[in-house]
Write a structure and sequence with these properties.
Elements: H1 3-25, H2 31-55, H3 61-83, H4 89-114, H5 122-141, H6 147-175
InterPro entries: Acid_resist_chaperone_HdeD, DUF308_memb
Transmembrane segments: 6-26, 33-55, 61-82, 89-110, 122-142, 149-168
Pfam families: DUF308 (PF03729)
Length: 178
């Protein structure tokens, strides 16, 4: 992973942790704020994932294409979420869950494809993808959990995924010193 890609991942991780903490700090937030937070996170993660793979010439073409496609789809889901933040809670939950599912699958598939090329942080990358996929499945299986449970699952996911992204970024910086 190039240093630019590492710094992008690190920045995305810090942003996800901040958004997760904000979601924990304001549990009685309106649906508009919650939709804005999670829609923004999906948009940022999608753009960062696509940008990472576009600036990393070491990643094999198949993984780059797959990662960019998943990144763009994740960003589009974020835009859909941002366009109708006051919409139905169940619709918002499903949109966010689909975004998490796409982002988690992208992380898992690109990690498996990159493990020989970029072994640094592979375990954390798999954990990040798995966490996002499991949170998405939980929300898709039980969409009527309610806003409080969604906030708890969502904020926990954002913090955990963000911390994993930070650890992956630090691992990448250690593997590629300046």
């Amino acid at each position: 992973m190039s240093r630019n890609a590492v710094w992008l991942r690190l920045a995305a991780g810090v942003l996800a942790v901040v958004m997760g903490i904000v979601a924990f700090a304001w549990p009685s937030a309106t649906l508009r704020v919650v939709g804005l937070l999670f829609g923004s996170q999906l948009l940022v993660m999608g753009v960062v994932r696509a940008a990472q793979l576009l600036v990393d010439p070491d990643t094999p073409v198949v993984q780059r294409v797959l990662g960019v496609i998943f990144g763009v789809l994740t960003g589009l889901v974020g835009i859909v979420c941002l366009r109708n933040v006051a919409g139905s809670l169940v619709l918002l939950l499903v949109i966010v869950a689909v975004g998490w599912l796409l982002d988690g699958l992208a992380e898992i598939f690109t990690t498996i494809g990159d493990s020989g090329v970029h072994p640094d942080g592979a375990g954390w990358r798999l954990a990040t993808g798995l966490c996002a996929v499991l949170a998405a499945i939980a929300v898709l299986v039980w969409p009527g959990l309610g806003l409080a449970t969604f906030l708890f699952i969502g904020a926990t996911t954002l913090v955990f995924v963000g911390l994993c992204q930070i650890l992956i970024g630090v691992s990448g910086l250690r593997a590629h010193p300046a």
